[in-house]
Specification:
EC 5.4.99.12, Alpha-Beta Plaits, single chain, PsdUridine_synth_TruA_C, alpha+beta
């Protein structure tokens, strides 16, 4: 039987989502927890990677098991053995061919910035005190919409067949005392959102014009874009699937 796990995590204590040698990962913690509960080695596949220090309000991973343990009991038991910075929201049965990564139709991220010093947001939001023209940042963000090549915002050494993504939403807005960037797309390249945020902040400081930003997209060259924003302000927040994969 195949299941989808819906979960969240605070990424500060982890070297990203993906299991790797000599580094602590979210995937490793969950796999070890499932293996302990199910009594058999269990491997999970996530909807995508998050880098070291990046958080998730909503992540999805699939796994297979022959256990007859009801999904709600499995989620309960898994939460009991996982550390406090990882939480399972649901365990849902899906079709045998459902895939957490390849069946995802839309993914979404939020990036949080606070501009007044706040000790309670430390490690959860990027403290950026310089004045920003948010209207200008939104004008630039609008240029991201649609299907185009985002190589300028991708990690240089990354194994992908192409750099095209279709962006459905890219918007800056204020939420309480924070400035938030919400971006939704069919897929994201490694390091893409943090590179976008770092470059859009330069637009907001008027170090780059809208024309400069458009030229950076067209350049397909990571060295032309801005410095990546810090990981602790970034949250994977949305992964959507077609309804037919759920049982």
């Amino acid at each position: 039987m195949r299941y989808f796990l819906e979960l969240s995590y605070h990424g500060a204590n982890y070297h990203g989502w993906q299991r790797q040698q000599n580094a602590h990962s979210v995937q490793q913690e969950i796999e070890e927890g499932l293996t302990r509960i199910l009594g058999q080695e269990t491997v999970i596949t996530g909807s995508g990677r998050t880098d070291a220090g990046v958080h998730a309000h909503f992540q999805v991973a699939h796994f297979d098991t022959s256990s007859q343990l009801p999904p709600d009991q499995l989620a309960y038991k898994l939460n009991a053995v996982l550390p406090d910075d990882i939480a399972i929201a649901a365990c849902r049965p899906v079709r045998e061919d459902a895939h957490a990564r390849f069946d995802a139709e839309v993914r979404g991220y939020h990036y949080f910035i606070h501009q007044k010093k706040n000790p309670f947001l430390r490690g959860q939001s990027y403290f950026y005190s310089r004045p920003l023209d948010v209207d200008l940042m939104n004008e630039a963000a609008h240029k991201l919409l649609g299907r185009q090549d985002f190589e300028s915002f991708s990690r240089v050494k990354t194994e992908v067949n192409h750099f095209e993504c279709e962006v459905f939403k890219a918007l800056w807005y204020f939420q309480n005392d924070q400035l938030v960037f919400n971006v939704r797309a069919n897929r994201f390249l490694r390091g893409m959102v943090r590179a976008l945020v770092g470059t859009l902040l330069e637009v907001g400081r008027k170090k780059l014009t809208i024309e400069d930003f458009v030229s950076i997209i067209a350049a397909k060259n990571r060295t032309k874009a801005g410095k990546a924003a810090p990981p602790h302000g970034l949250y994977l927040s949305e992964v959507n699937y077609p309804n037919h994969i759920y049982l």
